[in-house]
Amino acid sequence: MKLLTASLLTFAWPLAAQAEIIVTDPWARASVLASRPSAAYLTLTSDAPDRLLEVTSPVAGHVMLHGVATDSAGVTRMVHIEELDVSPGTPVTLAPGDSHLMLMDLSRKLEEGESFPMTLVFEGTGDVTVDVPVLGPGAMGPTEERP
Amino acid sequence: MISKPTTQTLRHVRLALWAGAAALLLLAGGALTVRTYMAPPAPRATSVGEADIRSEFALMEHTGRAVTEADFAGRWQLVFFGFTHCPDICPTTLAYMASVLDLLGPQADRVAQLFITVDPVRDTVPVMAEYVSAFHPRLVGLTGTEAQVAEAAQAFRTWYERVEEKTAPDGYMMAHAGHIYLMDPDGRFEAVFQERDQPPEAVAEEILMQIAKEEQQE
């Protein structure tokens, strides 16, 4: 029910003055092999300053927000981000090869074509639950899925 | 809209790589004690020769065959170091390399795509076989002993490091450089790319250009 409400809020956002956070194009990569972390991506838009505090999903034991930092030597490392600020007018996009939500301790392999719920906990808005479709292991984004 | 990498940007990429290679040499000198995710400021590059980066390795192919660089001689090589527990950079880059291979069309026969694991303890031959097949039927997975992988990484002057991470499977992740090396048919360094810097079309175009140049010289 919570999921349905969140989806309704998401779709009805232009009409609903209450909703502050829009989650666009959430998706995750299918697991190639069992017991390996996967990654989820999405875009966040807010009409008020807010902060993403935590992400949870029934399919994952832990969800960590990772950024990617490349130093001047060209070494790329994942950087654990504790909290993510979202400012009005500046969408935050998590995309392949950049920031991502790392889904750890998966309870099962994520199979292409399925979807799973993921809850984003914001300081101001509270919980926003989205349905995350699982795309192929080599997918680069959800655009190919659109009509 | 696809933009071709300009000479200028390629030069920047090369400069960055040389800086990286020089930094690695300095780091290997004993300063490599960093155990956090945050990268330390890189030591300033001095100078380093192009001959430093070579495709030289003795590893095990995902098919179970023992191979060295000689098994790929005469073909261009596109080489990436990563590991199968990597959630983002590795699948993203391998999918990107698969796109490049498809874009090469009939010339794809002249390019070997090698994925070398930096986590050979977990990435055994059967694991590599299952993993690479998810990306492209022609992608070659390479593993070996920890010493063999370290030697391969040394030949390519690439960098990786085990990072303890309590919540990760088996309690660790591997940090590693995200470069894709283009090596010529003699195993010499030709160019380096990162997935985020240009669309796969640009890399395919660069490789086709190199192949055409090679054919002119023959």
From TrEMBL, chain A:
Keywords, comma-separated and alphabetical: Signal
User: Which InterPro entries does the UniProt record give?
Assistant: LpqE-like (IPR007410), Lxx211020-like (IPR058248), PCuAC_sf (IPR036182)
In its UniProt entry, what is this protein called? Copper(I)-binding protein
Q: Which Pfam families match?
A: PCuAC (PF04314)
Task: Give the signal peptide as a residue range, or say none if absent.
Answer: 1-19
Automatic annotation (TrEMBL), chain B:
Q: Which domain of life is it from?
A: Bacteria
Task: Provide this UniProt record's keywords sorted from A to Z.
Answer: Copper, Disulfide bond, Metal-binding
What CDD domains would the database entry show? SCO (cd02968)
Q: Which Pfam families match?
A: SCO1-SenC
* SUPFAM superfamilies listed in its UniProt record: Thioredoxin-like (SSF52833)
Q: Which cysteines are joined by disulfide bonds?
A: C86-C90
Q: Does the keyword NAD apply?
A: no
Where Cu cation binds, per the record, is at C86, C90, H176
Q: Which GO terms describe its molecular function?
A: metal ion binding
Coiled-coil annotated residue ranges, if any: none
Tell me yes or no: is Transferase among this UniProt entry's keywords: no
Q: Which family does it belong to?
A: Belongs to the SCO1/2 family.
Listed PANTHER family = ELECTRON TRANSPORT PROTIN SCO1/SENC FAMILY MEMBER (PTHR12151), LINALOOL DEHYDRATASE_ISOMERASE DOMAIN-CONTAINING PROTEIN (PTHR12151:SF25)
Q: What is the protein name stated in its UniProt record?
A: Protein SCO1/2
Q: What organism does the record attribute this protein to?
A: Tropicimonas isoalkanivorans
